[in-house]
Structure formats: structure tokens, C-alpha cells
Amino acid sequence: MNMKDLPDKELFTSGHTACPGCAAPIVVRNVMKILGEKTLVYNPACCLLVFGGTYPWVAWEVPYHHVAFENTGACATGMTRALKRMDRDDCTVLGMAGDGGTADIGFQALSGAAERNEDILYLMYDNEAYMNTGIQRSGATPFGAWTTTTPAGKVIGGKEQFKKDVAQIMLAHAVPYVATANLAYPADFLRKVEKAKNMKGFRFLQVYSPCPTGWRADTDSAIKLSKMAVETGLWTQWEADHGVVKINAKPKFTPIRDYLKLQGRFAHMTDEQIDVLQEWVKKKWERDEKWLGALSE
Amino acid sequence: MVKRVVTGNYAAAHGAKISRAEFVAAYPITPQTFIVEHISEFVNDGEMDCDFVRMESEHSAMSAMVSAAATGVRTFTATASQGLALMHEILFIGAAIRLPLVMPVVNRTVAAPIGIWAEYNDTMPQRDTGWMQVYVEDNQEVLDMVLQAYRIAENRDVLLPMMVNLDAFILSHTVEPVDLYGYEEADKFLPKYEPHVHLLPEDPMAIGTFTPPEYIQELRYQTDAAMEASKKVIGEVNKEFADLFGRDYGGLIEEYRTDDAEVVLVTLGTVTSTARKVVDDLREEGKAVGLVKLRFFRPYPTDELRAIADRVKAVGIYDRSIAFNNGGPSFIEAKSALYGYTIPIVNFLAGIGGRDVFYSDVKLMFETLLEAASKGEAEKDVIWMSTRGVDA
Q1: What is residue B391's predicted lDDT score, i.e. its pLDDT?
Q2: Contact A53 B210 (CB under 8 A)
Q3: Domain at B75, CATH number
Q4: Which residue of A71, A294, B215, B355 has the fewest CB atoms within a 10 Å radius of its CB?
Q5: Residue B326 counted as domain residue
Q6: B194: nearest CA in chain A?
Q7: Nearest chain B Cα to A60, which residue?
Q8: Is B280 found in the same domain as B187?
């Protein structure tokens, strides 16, 4: 599907209460235009639940469901299995969760659903922290980032650990489809969503989702930061179709310093910390190229 | 009628089968495991037409139950002890969004110390989740109550989930003759499932929204009102079941030889059977004792208990778990229900951690009650039976 072929009809409507500049509603709008009306949506506790799923102003024009925080994989299992019992093979179940709900508290349910190869499209919108509760670090928060639980203190400045690579863990589950995607590459983004839609079984998409509020960045920076994340090598664009991997873009290795300086969450970082992160990017790419490359055709 | 000698766990699994549960999500835990093993056999042998998902935890099992029921199918799971504790968060949600889930719980002590025997400190702390709870006495009642649970839970005036609680090992692993009626009889009693909500694109609903305070208080009120309304439905379903199957469980409670009783003991679970024998023997001795089998803990039979208290001189409450520092949960409920009564109300704590409750223990409970009745007061409100370190 081409950008210009996307239907005009909105299944995630205006009037939601996302912060200015948030990437998540852009992700949702476009994903829903591809998935269409025959989609059942599950959200765990996350920003998207609050800004799109508040009674009586629910922004979804499709069946919408929430139970709790740590169970997207399990609830989506219940939904997809029930649909099958009701002979409703024509519907897609979309579980859409943040990075905390996916990488951390929801990981068990995610892994269980993937191991059972449930017929679910799981979309992790990765804004690199618990934004809904007010910017706390998650397993997907990058090294050095300020959050309210990794403050820029006098002794310790920001997060001390590196970002957890959830997509690669999902690849190890040998599910039909795993991909990372990014709004700065819309054609690639739409292609991956459409590809995932047309498959059966467990499909996992990790989408880079800038949060100007939590990242302390300008509200018009989401797409720019998305592009820079790929160009610096911080974010690798790849996909695995039934275990066959393709790296979609080779980074230009532009200095991460340019990316970091646009975001207040990194403002406190020392030169040493930036060097550590720059070195991590290099190693990450070497590892991605070796590991993911070994699985390419 | 096909009487077969089966365990309580088999009876529970058979109940799920003939209730035509369409979706089962479960996780093994002693002493419940045989239930999911039997269901696995039914499904793999083609005897049970359901989608059985072997989940990766009880938390996920209950989550999948809630979402499958919200999508529009009849659901079943079973658990015990730690598994129920792990489900705790989701129990609230299943009840608050008014889904007719049915779940046998094989009552087992909650750690620490870790143990696998009967205690009610798994289910009783779930009192405020919005689930109905029935405690059963034998394996036939396990099966019959699984079937009745669907009828009660799915009633449009109720729409609340229900636990069917059976004692670990004493029922779960012990064989008894059970009338294992089949689909044909069950179908006459329990109609095909008609969901009251669904997640379907033709008629999109939002189930489980983020909700501001403007609406939550009314939702809580509605759940409370539904729990109250369930009392009538439980009675009606009991009667209809009795008419069809010939077994009348009495509804919220069962009274045994209470008509002219001076004292009654309120029991629940399998201790009831022992208490029946004690009552018979004491009656032989001319002692006016009676028994109240507390079947439902939620909804709670307040009116029924008050009607009994109107005509007796002392009430004893048996508890198989402790709400620390205030007696057992059943005792606390009874005291609340009997507010204003001046007769002695005595709590007997026994069988905790799965310790056997002997004939002699129950006899001592009745003797204590008779003494309290004659004096018009009890020496102690809360009595730890046969407990080391406690003065007799």
C-alpha cells in the first residue's frame, strides 16, 4: 500500500489527548488505516490507554479492550482464540503496548504468546521510558538518559545500563515476523505493517516513538529524531520474515552527539558518557551485522 | 444415571466439559493440576470441543479468560493457592467488567511456609474482588456447582464471576461415587452461551476503559447491587436444579437439624460432613444441636443467618483460615451479620494448613457452644483448636 492509497477514514479519531508532538498517535493512525475496521485492539496501561481510551471520549472506532498492564500477550491470546471459536478469522487482533509494558512487566506474557505462536500482531511503541507515569526508566531506556528514576545527580548521571534489544529477543522465539520500524521511513513503515497484517501467527513490530515531553525535546522534532536515530546507528532498521533477516538500512554513523544535544534528557551527559554510548553504537552495529547478517539470505 | 467413582478434580473437569466451556486457559498447580490434565485428555480425545490454551502463568490464564469472555465465549479455568494469589489483580477486573467467568479453586494453604494442604487463606482474601464464592462438601457438589455457577453467573441480573471452592486432597484427590450425567442432561439445564458483550467490528464496544471518578462510584454500586441480586438467582437456580436432578443444596446455606436447636455450628467445606455425624450423635444424647452449612461466602447469607440466630442461644463459626488479630474471615462476616444480637458467637479455628479436623474436635466445638448457651456468654470469642502453645 502506498501512502497516497491510505484511506481517508480515521479509525483513531482526533480529540484524543496525547501531548503535542507525540509520535504514538501518528503510529496508531497509520497502522489502523492499514489494518482496517476488522481489527480488535488491546492496550495495556500506557499513555495510549489514557489519551485514546478514556471513557466517554474513546478515540477508537474499532472494538477496544484493556485489562491491566503486564498482560498484553495473554489478553490478546484470549481475544484471538475467542474470535476463532466464533468463526471470525476475518479479524486482526492488535496488541499495542509501550516499552515498559513490553520489555519489562509485560515480557512474560509476550514471550508466552510468541512461544504459542498466537495469531496476534504485537506492536511495541518504544518511547524509551515509562512516560505515562511521568518518565521513569525502563529496560528500553538508553544509556545516559535522564529520567525521574535515573536523575542527573551529583554522583550518578542518568541511566547506567544500555537499552534492551526486545526485537532480537523476539527473533529468538522463531515467530513468523519480527521487524523494527520508524516513522521517518514511511514507505518502509507501511510496508512492514501491511506485511504483518497479511501474515498469520505471532508478529512483532518495534516502532521507534519519540516522546518530546519525556525526552525534553521540541514538539516538532519527532520525525527528525526518528531519522537521526537510524543515521547514527542507535536504532537498526531490520525485519525477519520467517527467520530470514534483512537489514533495511545501513547507518551513516553520524555522531550521536548531534542527536543527543536536541534532547534535554541527555543534556547532563559528560564527554566520557557520550564516548561510552558512541562506542556502544559501534559494538551494537557490529553485533547486529554479525548476528542479523548471519540470518540473511 | 451413570454413577462413577471419581475425584473432586475429575468432577470439576467433567463439569467444564458438559457445560460446553468454549475456551479454557489454565496453568498447573498442585492440587488443581488434575483438573487441567483431565481437560487435556478430554480435548485430545475429542470428547470436549473447546480451545484449551496452556498459558505460561495463572496471571496470564486469568487475563486470557477475561479477554476471551469479553470477546464473546464461555470460559473456564481452575487454580489453587499461590496461583489464585497471582491472579488476584485480574480477579477484580473480571468482576468489575461483569464477566460470567467460572473457576473451581482447590483450596490450599498460601505460603509461607509452603504447603499443599487445605486452608481457605487463598480464597477468603478474595472476598472484595467481586467474585461469588461457593464452598462445597463433596465431589457431587463440585460437579453440580460448576454447572449451576454458569447459570448464576450468566444470569442478566447477576453477571458476576464465580469460584467453586473445594478442599485440597480431601475432595480434589479423593474418590467418591458421583452421578456423572452427560451433555444431554446438562443441556436441559444450561442453555447455549449467549454473550451480553462482545468485541466485534459490526458493533464496536470499548471494554475496560480508563474511567474518571464521575463514573466509577456508580459502577461499584452496580456490582454491589448485582451481588445482592445474585441471592435470589442462587435460590431459583438451586430449585430448578433440584427439580431436574433431584439434589437440593438449599441455596445460600443448608440447615441440618436446626429446627429446635439451641446451638448451631456454622461450617463450610468438608468439615460439614463430620459435623453432620456429630450432630446426629449428640441428638441421640438429647442435646439440641444443629448445623448450618455456609455454602456461599459471597453473596453472604445475612438474612438467613439472622433468622437462625433469632431462635438459638449460641452460634459457633468454624474457620479454616485466620484474619490475623480478629478471628477467622467467616467469623468476622457472621459477627457483622449478627450485629445487635446478644447471644454468644464463638469462633473455632481448626484445620489450618490442612491439619485434619477430627470428630472429637467438632464434638468439642458443640460442647463449648452448649456451655456458652447455658451461661449466656462465652469464655473466649476466638478459640484455636488443638494448637500447640495455646491453653486448652
Answers
A1: 80
A2: yes
A3: 3.40.50.970
A4: A294
A5: yes
A6: A86
A7: B206
A8: no
Is the Cβ pair A68, B93 closer than 8 Å?
yes
Hey, what's the torsion of the CAs at B76, B81, B82, B83, to 10 degrees?
A: 0
Q: Are residues B138 and B15 in the same domain?
A: yes
Domain boundary among B226, B245, B264: B245
* Chain CA centroid to CA B105, Å: 8
pLDDT tens figures, B295-352: 999 999 999 999 999 999 999 999 999 999 999 999 999 999 999 999 999 999 999 9
Cβ A71–B60 below 8 Å, yes or no?
yes
Q: What do you get for the CA distance between the two ends of chain B, in Å?
A: 48
Residue A1 has pLDDT above 90, yes or no: no
Put simply, whether B209 touches A (Cβ < 8 Å) is yes
Chain A neighbors of B66, CB-CB under 8 A = 67, 75, 78
Domain that holds residue B224: 3-245
Domain match, B10 and B35 both: yes
* A196-229 pLDDT tens trace: 999 999 999 999 999 999 999 999 999 999 999 9
Cα gap B362→A177, rounded to integer Å:
62
Task: Name the residue among B201, B210, B212 with its Cβ closest to that of A63.
Answer: B201
Confidence of residue B392 (pLDDT cuts 50, 70, 90): low
* Contact (CB<8Å) A39/B201: yes
CB-CB neighbors (< 8 A) of A95 in chain B? none
Number of structural domains, chain B? 2
Do B68 and A81 count as a contact with CB atoms less than 8 A apart? yes
The CATH homologous superfamily of the domain defined by A9-294: Thiamin diphosphate (ThDP)-binding fold, Pyr/PP domains (3.40.50.970)
Domain ranges for chain A = 9-294
Query: Which residue among B22, B67, B204 sits closest to A85, beta carbon to beta carbon?
Result: B22
ipTM associated with this complex: 0.97
Determine the average pLDDT of the residues in A88-104: 98
d(CA B70, CA B100): 10
B233 & B278 share domain: no
Mean pLDDT of B225-254: 98
Nearest by CB to B64, which of A54, A77, A84?
A: A77
**β B51-54/B23-26 pair status:** parallel
CATH number of B302's domain: 3.40.50.920
List helix spans (H) across chain B: 8-18, 33-44, 58-71, 81-96, 139-154, 183-189, 213-245, 271-284, 302-309, 329-337, 359-375
